[in-house]
Design goal:
single chain; alpha/beta; eight-stranded parallel β-sheet; 8 strands; disordered N terminus
């Protein structure tokens, strides 16, 4: 398996910033995937960090990453064989969406954005984000990444973005769904769930916790990102050194979601993989994980092309 020695590698944050202690930089020289992504594949979950000298990190950030620029993201896109990106605002940039919007604008129409906004945002600012290619906002409920998110403010934001045809991306721990699902169901727009709702993969795939999540998806207007096995695994081998069976403990959960909701699942790399502590995966091997989660060509085409195009580029086709 060859490696991409021509891809620019990670470096420290530029500008007046120092990386958080123990920060794991993204994997340099990702392998060339064995699985060929179908034409038109969309990576629906990735980020840009800075560069800090141009797009400073937010004073209220919980971590300081290495820089991960739009040019490095687009180089990885081309290396892996995907066609488009959905760039999700990184929490290290707070509600300053400048780096994300800059990347979306530089993509030549091949990227969309997910923003972080505050209740005081004006209609003109929302219209500007929409014109730039933003198609949703992210509500983050992980206490280690953000301060408490007031539901009243989030509900007000959701109501304001509904006329734009946007959606809400929600990020939460599986154990918190029981408390949050009533609020989620009350929002007047589609929902996109990050990383399968972060299931506890040491529990049975047909156990009560994951069953609650599947029921929540089934009863509401919900899309699910079948992403981040490297973040969810408890006992699986990492996607490194050519490992062909990486994250086997996550596969049953991903497969269950793909097969139960074939028309509302999405895939993404999560590059540059913020806040990982155990290991940093080879993104080429993360592509090779896809056919283990989506076992037929029809399911893979829905996951990788049809569904994200319908959500982010409606009417455009491939």
């Amino acid at each position: 398996m060859s490696t991409a020695s021509t891809l620019p590698g990670p470096s420290g944050p530029s500008g007046p910033f120092t990386k958080s202690p123990g920060w794991l930089d993204w994997y340099a020289g990702p392998s060339t995937p064995t699985f060929a992504l179908p034409a038109g594949t969309v990576d629906t979950h990735c980020h840009v960090f800075g560069p800090g000298a141009e797009f400073p990190y937010a004073p209220e950030r919980k971590y300081t990453p290495c820089d991960a620029s739009k040019d490095q993201l687009f180089a990885l896109r081309d290396h892996l064989g995907s066609s488009r990106n959905v760039i999700v605002q990184a929490t290290c940039h707070g509600a300053d969406n400048s780096a994300m919007v800059d990347a979306v604008r530089a993509s030549g129409g091949r990227a969309r954005g997910i923003a972080t906004v505050r209740p005081g945002i004006t209609d003109a600012e929302l219209a500007e984000l929409d014109a730039a290619g933003v198609r949703g906002v992210r509500f983050n409920f992980l206490k280690r990444l953000v301060d408490a998110a007031p539901k009243e403010d989030l509900a007000a934001i959701a109501a304001r973005i509904a006329p734009l045809g946007w959606h809400v991306v929600i990020y939460f721990e599986s154990t918190d769904l029981e408390e949050l699902e009533g609020f989620f169901a009350s929002l007047p727009i589609p929902l996109v769930v990050d990383h399968m709702g972060r299931p506890d993969v040491t529990q049975p795939v047909d156990g009560p916790e994951f069953t609650r999540f599947l029921r929540f998806v089934d009863r509401n207007d919900v899309w699910v990102k079948v992403t981040c096995p490297e973040r969810l695994t408890a006992t699986g081998r990492p996607a490194l050194d050519g490992e062909r069976e990486a994250y086997s403990d996550v596969v049953p959960f991903a497969r269950r979601v793909v097969e139960k909701f074939p028309d509302s699942v999405l895939w993404g790399t999560d590059w540059p993989h913020p806040n990982l502590t155990g290991h940093m995966p080879d993104d080429g091997l993360l592509v090779d994980y896809v056919p283990r989660a989506a076992v037929t060509s029809q399911l893979r085409h829905k996951l990788l092309v049809d569904n994200p195009m319908r959500l982010y580029w409606p009417g455009e086709g491939v």
